[in-house]
Amino acid sequence: MLRHGEAQPHGSANDSDRCLTERGEQQARCAGVALAAIGLTFSAVYASPKVRGLNTALLACEALGGEPVVYAGLSSGFGRSEALELIETEGVDDRILVVGHEPDFSQTAFDLTGGRIDVKKGSVVGIRIESGASQLLAVLRPRDLAAIEGSGV
């Protein structure tokens, strides 16, 4: 899971239309480069239809390759059942990336793994799901991704 990068403040535009800030764009690109640098590839990238989510996915995909697929379920209310549905769509041995929002991602991580985390803007959460069991693998915040990517953003 990749949470969208920093976005325009609430109230500056309709929630669905809020754009990434310059920093948010850097966070999205950095996440894509960092994930590619550690050798991760994805069979599919699913993105929220909200502007900040879709743009985060598009920018991350510059380094990861592929094109994000807009998935309406990521706009609000994304949870355990939607995550499992996407995995079944792609295949249990495939790796997918979902780009969306809080508080959905923290709750989904908890529902899948029992781990209580706070997914900051621009952060990546890795979860392995096998045979109905789930394991929290990593939580990489923007500073961690920047260290991997080498920019220090």
Question: What report would you give on this structure?
Answer:
The protein has one domain (2-149): 3-Layer(aba) Sandwich (Rossmann fold). Helices cover 39% and strands 18% of the residues. It is built from five helices and six strands; from the N terminus they run E-H-E-H-E-H-E-H-E-E-H. It has helices spanning 22-37, 51-64, 80-90, 104-113, 142-149; strands at 2-3, 44-47, 69-70, 96-100, 124-130, 133-140. The protein starts with a strand and ends with a helix. The model has no long low-confidence stretch (mean pLDDT 94).
Tell me briefly what this model is.
The chain is of the alpha/beta class. The protein is built from 5 helices and 6 strands; from the N terminus they run βαβαβαβαββα.
Q: From the 3D coordinates, which CATH architecture would you assign?
A: 3-Layer(aba) Sandwich
- One letter per element, helices H and strands E, the order comes to EHEHEHEHEEH
The CATH superfamily bears the name Phosphoglycerate mutase-like
Overall strand count: 6
Strand content: 15-25%
Q: What keyword list fits this structure?
A:
153 residues, alpha/beta, Rossmann fold, four-stranded parallel β-sheet, two-stranded antiparallel ribbon, 6 strands, 18% strand, globular
